[in-house]
Amino acid sequence: MTVLASAVMALLCAVAVLLVLGVLHGTAQRYKTDEITTTAVRLAYQAKRDRLPPVLLDPGVAGVQVIDYSGRIVSVSDTLTGRPRMAAFRPELTTPETSKVLCASPAFPDRCMVVVAFRFHNTGGLWTIYTADDTVPWYVSGPLLAALIGGSLLLVALTALGTYQTVRKALGPVEAITCNLARITATDLSQRVPVPKYHDEIRRLAETANQTLDRAETAVERQRRFASDASHDLRSPLTAMRTEIEEALLHSEDADWPATGRALLGSCDRLQALVTDMLQLARLDSGAPPRREPADLGGLVARELDRRSRKVEVVRHLTPGVVVVGDRLALGRLLNNLLDNGERHAVSMLSVTVRREGGKGVLEVLDDGAGIPPDKRELVFQRFTRLDAARSKDAGGTGLGLSIARQIAQAHGGTLTIEDSDQGARFVLRLPLAPAR
Questions:
Q1: Structural domain ending residue among the three candidates 236, 253, 282
Q2: Which of 72, 34, 42 has its CA nearest to residue 59?
Q3: Packing angle between helix 257-285 and helix 201-250, nearest 10 degrees?
Q4: What's the predicted TM-score (pTM) here?
Q5: Predicted local distance difference test score (pLDDT) of residue 127
Q6: Phi, psi of 378, rounded to the nearest 5 degrees
Q7: Is a pLDDT exceeding 50 seen at residue 19?
Q8: Does position 391 have pLDDT exceeding 50, yes or no?
Q9: pLDDT above 90 for 291
C-alpha cells in the first residue's frame, strides 16, 4: 500500500510539474518576446533621430541588426559584427512587427533564438530592425525546476510516511489476531483473539473468529466427552465377555459352554448396538442433509408398530393424512428409539399419538412409568446419559438413542422435547407439514 500510494503520488506530482512548467514556459516566452519587441521599438525611435551608432554596445538582447530601405545593415550589435543577416522575414503590411523562433539563423547557426522584426518609416523608405534573444528553456529556470522537484519529493515522502503509519495502525489489530491464532492449538482452544474498540471490518473479523473458536471448542469438547463415554461404555461389554471366557477356561471341564456362548452373544449384541449408534451419530454430526420425500406420519408409525414385537400394550391414536417431508428410514429410526425407550420404562401400557397442530405434524409417545423430573428432561438427550432409574431397569441400553432421535428431528427442521403429563414420560416430536399440492 505504501509503494502504491507513493507511486500514485509521484505520478500526480510529475503531471502537475509538467503542467506548471508548460504554463510558466508559455508565460515566460511571451514575456521575453515582449521585451525583445520593446528593445526594437526603442532602437527604431533612436534611428529616426539618427542616434544609432554603427556598432551597438550592450543593447539588452543577444543580437540586433538595423536594415535600411535598401537592405544594407547600417547598425549592428557588437556580438554580430561581420555576420550575415539573422533573418529575411518581414512584418505584414497590416502590422509593424512580427516574431519567429529560428533554430537555423545565419547569424546564430548553433542556437535557437526568438527573432522580432520591427518595421518603421525612416529616411529613404521602410527600415527593419531585427532583435533576437535566446528562447526560454523547457524548465523555464533552474531554481524553479529545483523547487518543483524538491516539493514533489517532499510530498511523495510525506505520502509514503502517512500511508505507512495509517496502514500499520489499521493492520495492528490484524497482527494481534494473527499472533493469537498462531498460539491456539487443538489442545488449548480456550484463548480468544483481541477485539478492537472501533466498530469496523476488523472488529467483525475478530468477533467472527471468536465465534468460530467457540464452536470449535464446543465441538472438540463434545468429541472428547463422546470418546471418553464411548470408551467407557465399550469397555463394559468387553470386560463382561473377558470375564465369561476366563471363568469358562479356568473350569473348562465343568463349564457350561452353551450358557457361556449365550452370555457372550448378549455382550456382542450390546457391542453391535453401541457401534451402530455411534456410526449413526457420526453421520448426523457430518451435517449431511436427509432425503426429502413426502411421508404419511400416521402410516409410518402404524407400519413400525405392526412389525415390532410387543413387550407392553400399545394404544394407538393415529390421525391419517398427516404428511411431513423427510427421510423415511431416519424417521423410522427416530420412532423406534422412542418406542424402545418407552417400552423399557413403561409399566403396562404405551400410548402413541399422531395429529396435526398449528401447521406441524405431532408425534407423541407416552408411557405409564415413573416419568422424568423436569430438571432432568434435557439431560436425557445428552450422549451416553442414562438416569439411575434407567440403569436399574435396563443395563443394556447404550445411552445414545434419545440423542440420535433429537438430532434426526433437528435435521428435519423439527423438535423433540419432553412435556408434562399426568403419569410417565411424554415425548413430543414436531415436524413441519409437507406443502399442500
A1: 282
A2: 42
A3: 170
A4: 0.50
A5: 93
A6: -80, -25
A7: yes
A8: no
A9: no
Whether residue 305 sits in one domain with residue 267: no
For the chain, how many structural domains are there in total? Answer: 3
What contacts 2, CB < 8 A, 6 or more positions away? 160, 163, 164, 167
Same domain, yes or no, for 213 and 231?
yes
- Residues 361, 433: contact at Cβ < 8 Å? yes
Amino acid letter at 391? R
Q: Tell me the C-alpha distance between 241 and 267, whole Å.
A: 6
pLDDT digits (tens, 9 = 90+) for 293-314: 899 999 999 998 988 888 889 9
Say what the pLDDT of residue 253 is.
79
- Residue 48 forms part of a structural domain: yes
The overall average pLDDT reported for the chain is: 86
* Domain of residue 68, residue span: 1-142
Classify the phi-psi angles of 313: left when phi > 0, otherwise alpha if psi is within -120 to 50, otherwise beta.
beta
Is 294 found in the same domain as 275? no
**Going by DSSP bridges, is the β-strand pair 55-56/73-77 parallel, antiparallel, or unpaired?**
parallel
- Residue 189 is predicted with a pLDDT of 73
Torsions phi, psi for 106 (to 5 deg): -60, -30
Residue 192 placed within a domain: no
Question: Which residue is listed with cell 545565419?
Answer: 106
- 437 inside domain: no
What is the CATH number for 242?
1.10.287.130
What are the cell numbers at 357? 397442530
Nearest alpha-carbon partner for 125 in 70, 50, 46:
70
Same domain for 131 and 22: yes
Residue 338 lies in a domain: yes
Taking residue 205's Cβ as centre, other Cβ atoms within 10 Å add up to 16
Each residue's pLDDT tens digit, 113-128: 999 999 999 988 899 9
* DSSP characters over 263-286: HHHHHHHHHHHHHHHHHHHHHHHT
* Position 273 pLDDT exceeds 90: no
One domain for residues 375 and 265? no
pLDDT in tens, 164-185: 998 888 888 888 878 877 777 6
Cell of 401: 438413542
